[in-house]
Sequence to fold (486 residues):
Amino acid sequence: MIISDLWNFVDILDIKGDPEAPVTGISYHSRQVKPGHMFVCVEGFNWDGHDFVDQAIEKGATSIVVQREISVSNDNITVIRVKDSRKAMGAVGHVFYGFPSQKLKIIGVTGTNGKTTTTYLLKSILENAGYRVGLMGTIAIRIGDKEIPSLRTTPESLDLHRLFAEMVTGGIDYAVMEVSSHSLDLDRVGYVDFDYGVFTNLTRDHLDFHGNMKNYLEAKIKLFKSTDKFNIINADDPSSEIIIQKLSNLPTQTLTYGIKNKADFNAEDIKVDCTGVRYNLVWKNNSIPIEVKIPGIISVYNSLAAASTLIAEGIPAEHIQQGLKRIDGVRGRSETIDTGKGFSVIIDYAHTPDGLENILTTIRGFVKGKIITMFGCGGNRDREKRPMMGEIAGRWSDFVVVTSDNPRDEEPHRIIDEIMPGVEKTGCSYICVVDRREAIEYALRMAAKDDIILLAGKGHEVYQEFADRRIEFDERKIVSEILERI
Fold:
């Protein structure tokens, strides 16, 4: 690529230096710069790339993208000033990697809960139909048989286009990805050619970032304004009417799915038990039986979202059925551990009020003994949801163990103190155990035959974050170690 290749894609304010200079690579971290690279200065929450220009030049950067004036003494360096360097970075990646998202069929899934499971269900159906599928999300990034650790739900824009390019090289047909509200507001998905946008639901989350639910919804809607084929919307969610109204003037077709409200795709004759869900998927003059081995009414919604999307894409019904039936579960989502001691442990990522209520009401539907819920709330996040989650835990559980989640920069005791009014409001029996490992052991020691212990909040995560460190914390291993000891 040469710098002038960007002219049709980037809002350039001015340029100093050679516009025909070649670019051998792109970096937004100065430590990753190599000779011939373009360094994009992005303003982050904790750092500003403009402060690292000298280091980038020392490592060999020959062009710099900035959004504010900087002083560069080396006349051989080309400086491109743009209106928004974060937005420009998406364009740079799009051009440098050869417009890779245009060479894939891309399905973006957004919503508060259900994104991860829905993407795995989509992947399973498409693979059952014989397609090669790439996946990006909270748990991992998968390109064929290759798995890459995921640092965030949606990668930074430059990384995203690089991964798309790798998928194209690897012969991938479809890319299925979770699209977070942060990524939409921060232009991480800029210049991505989405074919489909899928909306799961909208409940309270990330208000520490968005400020209010209106801003949170507006961020989600950005995905549906950037799709080329269809948007698939949950008709039962209260936000659906607003979303559909805002999309009414766009050429992209909007389809709906639901259980309670009439939709383009409906689930009827629903049966939910501890083994999973079964229902009839009905659309137009068609009806097919669906079975998913993940319990809970949320599994009906997630599988409806996946099935609706791929029926619209033209995937035959038998692949929809087989793809949904063959998946046994998703790591950290209603993940059941058989303890061999007459009681079970369920690990779930539930970290929002709605997510916690979904998993607890699901368990309440089939538990034979007591529900023992262990949970906490993350530090440096929405504080108002803490007593809400305490009340939900107390309402649906027989006993609650309140503990730490990822306290980050906050004092764990203070977070627990803000949870407790909600638990106490319900009259449910409880105990506070600050150390999460000790809290797990307490729950395991008190469990009896037919009880179910819910370990909520960590899910797939195998670490715990504190102000000054991140420690290894895999709840599966911890449960196994404690059970062996007791």
About this structure: The CA atoms of residues 258 and 266 lie 5 Å apart. The two ends are 62 Å apart (CA to CA).
